Amino acid sequence: MIEVLLAILGIGYLMRTGGRRLRGGDHLPTILAGAERAGIITATQREQILAHAAEHGSRGRLGGAAWLGVFAGLFVVAGVSLLIARNWEAIGPLVRIAAYLLLLLAVGEAAVRLRDRSVGVALPLELLWFFLPLLGIGLYGQTFQLSGDPVQPFLIWLALSAPIAWLSPRPVTAAIHTAAMTLVLFVGNFIVDATASLIGGGRGPSGLLALAGTSGTPTAWTLSLVLLAMIAVQSLRLLPEGRRHHFVGVWVLWTFGVLVSCAPLRLQHEGWIALAALALATLWVVVLAAMDASREERGTSLLAWLGTIYALTFGWHMTDPGHGEVTGLGIAVVILAVALAVGGAFALPPARLSPRSSWAQAGKLVLIAPVLVGMLFLASDVRLVWTAAILLDGLLVVTAVGCMWHGSLTADVAQINLGVLILVWVLISRFLDLFGSMLRSGIGFILAGVMLAALAWALERTRRRLIAAPREVAT
Amino acid sequence: MSGWLRIVLAAQLAFFALWGGRLVASHRDGEVVWLATEPVDPRDLLSGNYVALRYPIGAPSVAGCATLVAEQPAVVYVQLAPATNPTQTADGPIALSEAINCQLVPPSPAADERWIAGNLVPSRPGQIRYGIERFYVGETNPLREARSGTVVAKVRINRALEPRVLDLVRLPASAR
Q1: Is A202 in contact with B124 (Cβ distance < 8 A)?
Q2: Domain ranges for chain A
Q3: How many helices (H) and strands (E) does chain B have?
């Protein structure tokens, strides 16, 4: 009971602090009223400024206090969960249901009433309301000993809380809801349910959304596609500008997951898997470039593209050519991805890649080349696989040098740094690949250290020169 | 906008009130059977405070059950019968129920027949899950450290043949 009292006191303190902020936190109306009285602005201007502030003010931004509010909401939810767990045996089912309904009503009503007020109060309440249905499902599950599908409760929660995300004046709830949908989709489709295997359910996902290792039920496919569509729609409509196109990455990763794990599309041939990864990663970059997405969004896709190419450079170590079963449908999807990636890169407006047309054409070639090189992984001669790995290594070096050069021409420091980073990464990897066997003696370690230090010095000097060069031109 | 939000809140309250009401009422007057459990090792420590349970009726060896196979999840109905020899528990002697028959069509049970509904696990012949494979325990519950195989489950089955675990009772060491 002491914990319950402490929790109530804690919530009361948060509400009181929020109330104070409500009363004294927003100074703008007071200041504007004073300015109107002093004759600095007119009443119409005061109202216009307030309307403008309401529309473009700090609603979408999250400062330190707002983040504290977010954590406050999460802590309260966690605390309530723990309290219920601690006093579990003493509370009967009817009391639990009644208490939960009362709590849901109180939190929901408070969130509705205070939704347009100070973010420090409204946001924690909204998040508390957002998570309460999940808490309720857990509470009912534990109270009535409901086992069964591990994914279904989360799907119900996502459905129940979706309107809160859509009707919120802030993007935070929508962002959490979208991330939760993505997590549920991937866990439900691909993650193995360890408990199911323990109690005789076999290894593999066992819920409504299970796709990995199975053909997937019509329900699983339908729900997965609905979730994918919802993730896209919600991202485009509700997320802050600059983060609306991450759903493309979700689609690409999901497609790859289906290709490597789901029976009707399954690819077990390493060559086809490599080609699928390259084509889908390139498609991700191309689609975001075509959409003129933000730097952050394009950065994520670029990282995935570079990571895929880098991973495949280790194809040099393969001892046998790719082998394994493939499905016709899987191959069709890969061919479609290859066609879209190559065709999309070719058709990209040059300005999306560079303000200089020659560099834009070079960029298109750099995007298309890995997909074409990736086809060598399908060869039955392992020497062609090694050739593909070496060519991809070369492409990484070309990309790195291109980024540094292009960055220096367009005064883009981030591009220069990215180029240096890629180059360092590739050189260190290949250095360890080729001379790793030397690292068995003290002399070998010393030589390796000296060579790496020289490399670091040279690269850092080049980077500084490249960054300084455009500034001199600019000035 | 507030109007829409209140509609959402009302819908959530209605959902939880109706669901809670159904859960409270659905197993109020069902028949009680006792089920043996089998060891599950290792216990799933990552998933919180529940005892993972496995039952002999989850993989019945009787004819008609062991050969059931499903490519998609399918409901299966299992007939139970109490064992003739009583089992001693910490709460006294009880009669454990065993699976004696399985069928895919809903049964019309006679007054003295006990049936339970489960789901066939796809691609795992004879494997059935009943939705009673977890027993949630509070922080102070002495059953928190219980393991499947050392307890028997008291299960109530409602008219829709849906089971629900009411309690776990420890078996004496000699009966495990």
Answers
A1: yes
A2: 1-20+64-147
A3: 1, 11
